[in-house]
Design a protein that fits this description.
two-stranded antiparallel ribbon, 12 strands, 20% strand, globular, ten-stranded mixed β-sheet, Spore Coat Polysaccharide Biosynthesis Protein SpsA, Chain A, single chain, 2 domains, alpha/beta
Length: 345
């Protein structure tokens, strides 16, 4: 008998995409699914559309807009009565064998804590949106295949993050559930991957599971992103990295923060970025408490989890030659520095 999967769709104003997402989940070749829509205070007609066309889908709303997707992701894990929980956004259409292949990869190896699919662009189904990410020691995800037509890895491989995940709830009893204090921005989905890795569990990207993402174009005026990105990065750095790692990477971190702040000035985002860093530092007591909890589950060293590589830069910035050249120089500096210090970790 197939192990049942509880599917939770995180929704906010998804009227134009949510029906296609639900339809693709309904058409999965996996027999034991229940679908619940978790709504983050939408003000469009998406809920009424779901009630009309999919009356059997359970709908649970927060009653307000939190702006914190991890609040809903955590709620999904807490509510699920099954061991396996699939958490997805509202704007992805899945191939029919997606869930069956994900759970097979998870059950083939009892040390796997969660699995994530390959996401392609919905409007260009041969182009990779995200499929395999690594954990840069400056606390960033590296997506080497993003926006390429490169053939994916032939077999499951360890990955850092992505908000679309099949989770083994039994493993979260060891690592702790998703941290709902992370605001929207980089890292709010990656933090559970990082804790899984620290605890010695594998987090896999499964190539033969595919979803097609209605990707939104990056907008340089979204000033909330730099705040969340800076706050979340520093929360993860201070709560998850070993003390030796913090000391050794501190020169690179200082240099990176200085350059990032300067580069954000022309975009008018430097204030929000700095505010995010200060927000993390202002909550150091809370972070330190979480740090103790995370370090208690540690099974691997940072050097076995962290790496280096080219930092991603939004396509909106690539037209500026200064940004391109500057990013190339920074990548060389940070890669060289990691090769030097990794020997001492």
């Amino acid at each position: 008998m197939s192990s049942p999967i509880s599917v939770y769709i995180i929704n906010y104003n998804g009227a134009d995409v949510i029906l296609d997402t639900i339809r693709s989940l309904k058409e999965q070749d996996y027999p034991s699914l229940s679908i619940t829509l978790l709504d983050d205070g939408s003000n469009d007609n998406g809920i009424s559309l779901v009630q009309k066309y999919f009356p059997d889908v359970e709908i649970i709303g927060l009653g307000y807009n939190s702006g914190f997707p991890n609040i809903l992701r955590k709620k999904a894990i807490d509510m699920a009565k099954t061991r396996y929980v699939f958490v997805t956004d509202n704007d992805i259409v899945y191939e029919k064998n997606c869930l069956s292949n994900l759970i097979k990869s998870m059950q083939d190896n009892e040390n796997v804590g969660l699995c994530t699919p390959r996401l392609m662009y919905h409007n260009d189904r041969n182009k990779i949106y995200v499929c395999w990410t690594k954990f840069h020691y400056l606390c960033y995800s590296i997506s080497p295949l993003r926006d390429t037509y490169t053939a994916p890895e032939p077999s499951p491989i360890d990955t850092l993050g992505g908000g679309i995940m099949l989770i083994d709830k039994e493993k979260t009893k060891i690592t702790g559930n998703i941290d709902d204090s992370y605001p929207m921005g980089w890292g709010e989905d990656a933090e559970i991957y990082a804790r899984m890795k620290i605890a010695g569990f594998r987090t896999l990207y499964v190539p033969d599971t595919v979803g097609y993402h209605h990707a939104k174009e990056f907008v340089t005026k979204r000033t909330a992103r730099p705040f969340g990105q800076a706050r979340n990065r520093w929360h993860m750095i201070l709560s998850m990295y070993q003390i030796k790692t913090l000391l050794l990477i501190s020169p690179a971190l200082f240099f990176y923060e200085l350059v990032s702040t300067v580069m954000l000035i022309p975009k008018g985002m430097n204030f929000q970025y700095t505010k995010g860093v200060l927000c993390a530092l202002a909550n150091i007591r809370t972070i330190w408490k979480k740090r103790k909890e995370i370090q208690q589950i540690r099974k691997i060293k940072d050097k076995d989890m962290l790496t280096t590589g080219p930092l991603s830069i939004p396509r909106a910035y690539l037209s500026n030659p200064i940004y391109r050249v500057g990013t190339s120089c920074l990548n060389w500096i940070f890669c060289f520095y990691w090769k030097v210090i990794r020997f001492f970790l």
